[in-house]
Design a protein that fits this description.
The structure holds 2 protein chains of 2 kinds.
Chain A (H helix, E strand, L loop, with lengths): L1 E16 L4 E17 L3 E5 L6 H8 L7 E6 L2 E2 L5 H8 L2 E4 L3 H4 L6 H11 L5 H14 L16 H13 L5 E5 L7 H18 L2 E5 L3 H7 L2 E6 L2 E7 H6 L4 H9 L29 H5 L16 E4 L2 E3 L7
Parallel strand pairs in A: 3-8, 3-9, 6-7, 7-8
Antiparallel strand pairs in A: 1-2, 1-4, 4-5, 9-10, 10-12, 11-12
Helix pairs in contact in A: 4-5, 6-7
Chain B lengths: L5 E14 L2 E14 L3 E5 L6 H8 L8 E10 L2 E2 L5 H7 L4 E4 L3 H4 L6 H10 L6 H14 L5 H4 L9 H13 L5 E5 L7 H18 L2 E6 L2 H7 L2 E6 L2 E7 H6 L4 H9 L31 H4 L5 H5 L4 E5 L2 E4 L7
Parallel strand pairs in B: 3-8, 3-9, 6-7, 7-8
Antiparallel strand pairs in B: 1-2, 1-4, 4-5, 9-10, 10-12, 11-12
Classes of the chains: A alpha/beta, B alpha/beta.
């Protein structure tokens, strides 16, 4: 039974311009994405900046109002639920942000920050909440002395631990982790990744793990989805995706990873150009268009819904890239 | 190493900042060479002093707080530390160039990129408008900027991140420097664009025969493009060796810890990583002795905590800060 089902999700933003500030175009940040996430599973989401991965994460926790499509969480359709109707669901879906310095209120102490989820959900007495805060700090490896301190008094890694403590406070089922370690020092990244793995095991959490570092995503995920210009172009079990990539974009991404082994230097097939703008994206396969593939035109009038080519291995069936 | 083999020789460099809280030593006596025509990687985490090292070499330390307190930086035989400012300005942007992490902040937002490129030329050579234009376009073709003639009239915000970084590389290389210092040149870029930029630097290095100091926190980047590596931690170089030697036989506990802690493509998914405990120390917490002691998980004696370990050549061309506890 899947915990989260996303069907043909579209998240468009109006691009305003002109004298009357009318919407003159739309930015198709997420443009028809479908996937499921099972209980206790980690789905990795990779892609270059501007591909829509953060927008997708925000739409799922309903920080945005999706344009079209369907988001089902725990059997409930939450696509268009009102703020009031969402509140019980928010207990179960939390988010960890990239930059803990910006996602923690600088004027709140750690206690204020960690108590707030309980207050919002009207849980516990003051004493109970204080005890829960201490439990949370212990869970994420911070000492009790942290409670009366402010976020700026902590290092980046410790701040991210506070962000994680806040996310797990209400014992959620799903956490959207948006680049949780990319702002951290290399030696601290692995501590935070280990903490996330430990918490997942102990609490049975599901993660949507968004990152641009492919080695990190592979390490954390059961399955990985590759996004390009608002669409998923390939989705497969982590090992399968890395050993047997089928879409040209996945191959290019894998090829670009700098491997930390000087004996494995590679002559690369370098990608040319940059990610195109999601405002007025090209028709058909956007990556084939970027690569000026001779067969790209065939993809324009094709149904590009993901096809299952091996058990659990889905790929966009365009003639130019697969 | 003799001076003919190295283009840059840094010896016992000490750089400090004077602030309200007193003097903070950001770079605490480091020595290294940059072999001619090769790439030296300086790898380390935030606050380890790698960027301050770069700014010391180019004498671009923030004034009046930043000061070089000791040591020497010999570039082709001349000590940059004691060079008069005017002489330094002739070298900077001409023989030694630098590229920065975030091209959006390094480029002037209210001037066209063409004008900024022309400035780099005209500061060091006298030439006609037509020559400037020809050289600009020639350089932009080299850094693979499409439609260079049109791009010259554009402003930095009109370019993508990758294009801006190419533009900055063009500016740095327009006078054919002998030494390029690249401070996290690809950190702000996507992985695919990073690969393009690194390859571009390597190609131009081959073509122009320049030496490169590449500063990064990414061991993957180091492994892919560097010849020699210096690992910095808390203001000091803890280990220095050829890239193959360093990755195959790291001797210092910090280098070993870093290499073990990064997730690899061939590691088993969802297994715990070997993490280095604790946090990167801030500059105010630098200790006189072995600075990795606290995080090494190994017991150090009071003497080891209070006396700086010697920097020794532990095997041929492999240097290490020889703390007896952290170096096995």
């Amino acid at each position: 039974m899947s915990l989260l089902t996303v069907q043909n999700l579209q998240q468009y933003f109006p691009v305003r311009g002109g004298l009357l500030h009318r919407a003159v175009a739309s930015c198709k940040a997420v443009d028809g994405v479908s996937f499921t996430l099972n209980s206790g599973e980690t789905l990795g989401l990779v892609g270059e900046s501007g591909c829509g991965k953060t927008t997708l994460g925000k739409a799922i926790v309903r920080l945005l109002k999706p344009t079209r499509g369907k988001i089902e969480f725990d059997g409930q359709d939450i696509t268009h639920a009102s703020i009031g109707a969402l509140r019980p669901m928010r207990r179960h879906v939390q988010m960890i942000f990239q930059d803990p310095a910006e996602s923690l209120n600088p004027r709140h102490t750690v206690r204020d920050i960690l108590e707030e989820p309980f207050i919002v959900q009207k849980m516990g007495t003051k004493e109970e909440r204080r005890k829960w805060v201490l439990d949370l700090l212990d869970k994420v490896g911070l000492s009790a002395s942290a409670t009366d301190r402010f976020p700026f008094e902590f290092s980046g890694g410790q701040r991210q631990r506070i962000g994680i403590a806040r996310a797990i406070a209400l014992k959620p089922k799903l956490i959207v982790c948006d680049e949780p370690v990319s702002a951290l020092d290399v030696s601290v990244q692995s501590q935070v990744l280990n903490l996330l793995l430990d918490l997942q095991r102990d609490m049975g959490l599901s993660y949507l793990f968004i990152a641009h570092g492919l080695n990190v995503v592979k390490h954390m995920s059961d399955r990985v989805a590759v996004m390009y210009l608002g669409k998923i172009v390939e989705l497969a079990p982590a090992e399968e995706l890395y050993h047997n990539p089928r879409h040209a974009y996945t191959k290019a991404l894998l090829d670009a990873i700098p491997i930390a082994d000087p004996t494995k230097r590679r002559e690369r097939q370098l990608l040319r150009g940059d990610v195109p703008s999601p405002i007025n994206p090209p028709p058909g396969c956007a990556f084939g268009h970027r690569m000026k593939h001779p067969k790209w035109e065939q993809s324009v009038n094709m149904d590009l819904t993901l096809k299952e080519i091996a058990p659990g291995h889905f790929v966009q069936p365009c003639p130019c890239c697969t | 190493m003799s001076s003919t083999a190295s283009i840059l020789e840094v010896r016992d460099l000490v750089t400090a900042f004077d602030g309200d809280a007193g003097r903070m030593t950001a770079v605490d006596g480091i020595s290294f060479d940059v072999p001619r025509g090769k790439t030296l990687g300086i790898v380390g985490e935030s606050g380890c002093g790698k960027s301050v090292t770069a700014f010391s070499i180019t004498r671009l330390l923030p004034q009046p707080h930043g000061k070089i307190l000791g040591g020497s930086i010999h570039f082709e035989g001349r000590d940059l530390v004691s060079l008069p400012l005017e002489e330094m300005q002739k070298i900077r942007g001409n023989d030694i160039s630098m590229i920065f992490q975030e091209p959006m902040t390094a480029l002037n937002p209210v001037q066209t990129v063409g004008r900024q490129l022309a400035e780099a030329i005209l500061l060091h050579t006298e030439c006609s408008k037509a020559e400037v234009l020809a050289r600009s376009i020639d350089m932009m073709i080299k850094v693979r900027i499409p439609e260079p003639a049109q791009r010259l009239n554009e402003y930095p915000h009109q370019l993508s991140g990758g294009m801006r970084q190419r533009m900055m590389i063009a500016m740095a290389l327009i006078n054919k420097p002998k030494l390029l210092i690249a401070d996290e040149p690809t950190t702000a870029l996507d992985v695919t664009v990073q690969a393009q930029i690194l390859e571009l630097i390597a190609d131009l290095q081959k073509e122009m025969g320049m030496s490169v100091v590449l500063i990064t926190h990414d061991l993957g980047v180091i492994a892919q493009v560097c010849d020699e590596v210096a690992v910095m931690y808390a203001g000091r170089i803890v280990e220095r060796a050829n890239v193959h030697e360093l990755f195959a036989k790291p001797r210092h506990a910090y280098t070993q810890g870093l290499l073990e802690s990064i997730p690899r493509l061939d590691s088993k998914p969802k297994t715990l990583l070997k993490a280095i405990p604790g946090n990167v120390p801030g500059i105010a917490d630098f200790k006189p002795g072995c600075r990795f002691a606290e995080r090494s998980g190994r017991n150090h004696t009071a003497q080891q905590l209070n006396t700086r370990p010697p920097f020794i050549e532990i095997s041929a061309n492999h240097w290490v800060e020889n703390c007896p506890i952290c170096v096995a």
